# Entry
Amino acid sequence: MVIDCHTHLDDDGRAEKLLRSMDDAEIDASIVIAETLPGDISNAGQVLEAVRQSDRLWAIINCVFSKTVELKYVEELTQLLHEDRIVGLKFYLGYEEYSANDERLHQLYEYCEKYDVPIMFHTGVLETGSTGLLEYSHPLQVDRVATRFPNLTIVMAHMGNPWLIDCAAVLAKNQNVYADMSAFFAENRSITAHDVEVFKQRMEQVRVFLYSYEKFLFGTDYPLYSQKEYLGAVEALEMEQAEHEAVMHANAARVFGITTS
Ligand SMILES: [Zn+2]
# Structure
């Protein structure tokens, strides 16, 4: 069983290609994450439509920070989180100028803590030319939220790459924090044997520090990557049986409450 906890819709706003890619890579389930498009518009509507058409897809809805000042927006967002196939809320740290610890977000965090809604933070690099700020997407941003809301389940997207060891320190300290392995490689090209070697070396440093990958989740960031190639790279990591199960599906199933038949 394999769950990809980090994918997006294709440019056509649909999930057909993703489903074919999953068949090809033998991935059982994927979580599709809504994004913020130019003009602070969310593609959550398209994501919802796509995941409703397949019992192999689940959705994470994005929070557009600039809109959280409107009570109506927060109400709409929390209303959406009641929907069956929506399994979490994502904050794109760095892309919008706000700290993960901004008090205006505490109400949402409390809501998620109370109703067991896991949240995902973008952590790590920002796109070349982005007007966002790296100080807000550094993994240490997550520590204060995790400490203040100990019952809030948090997933750090991309392991804070390139700050993998900083991410590992946050994982080691906070029981409620996990990390997904997505988007480690250069985007929109094949993952080479050399890439896999570098990945193995850098991940091994993380494992030496944490003793295991038990707090990591398999994720790709499809369509920026081939799911099949990405799965091959993660399969190349040295893992005990229990870690392998945790990474490939058990953590995602537990954190996001995904049940597959
Ligand atoms: Zn992504």
